[in-house]
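Support request, please re-run this one:
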Amino acid sequence: MTTIIAKKNDWVRLFGVAGAYVKEAKITVEDNKVSCLAVDPAHVAIVKCSIECEGTFNGSICVNVEQFMKALNACGGEQPIIEVDDYVTDLKFIGTASVKMPLLADLGEIRDIPRDMFEGEIASGTFIPSVLEQPIGYCMWRKEQIVSIKMKDSKLIFEIGTDRDTAEVISDTPATGIDAESTYPLDYFESLIKQTKGTDTVTIEIPQSNYPMQAKWDVGTGHYSVVIAPRVEQ
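Re-run finished. Output below.
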């Protein structure tokens, strides 16, 4: 048996972010770090998360996100021990109770974005997620809504919705770098805002207009990023 030991709250955050976009996830454990890379079925969002851990397991495992969270909650404890069996087919969660769950077959290679996409001269800005919750809620009742993100004249501007059901939010923190503007599906952006709830600030980066955006934030021992592709007009 080998083990993975991490704080329950860190597991909850990691799979909360991943589970907002995928049902199955591949995690890799190496150098006292659990990393997760996942792409949603529509290939609109890429999720990259990592948390600190201890233990003796090194390698990759694939899990059903909902089942992992149920097992984590059922075993109890603030820092459960997760045992990986010798054949890497099952996990055993040990806390105030012991819970066992099967692993999935390997999900294969998951392709990441090019490493240099968000390097060099890009548009960058920070915002407080909570200020967007109510404006997004107001506009979400209509299907296929959008959010336009603009970084211009040192301002980070969110234009949410279409037609008459619109809202505009300007971040208090100045944007830096180049000017850029892109439009994204609001349902994906809403999922992002839900997962950053309670986070002080989130950084958004856009390489250039009509390109994917990357949102980054840190909580606890974790580092999180979500990349969302721009909306393509038909």
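The mean pLDDT is 93. The radius of gyration is 19 Å.
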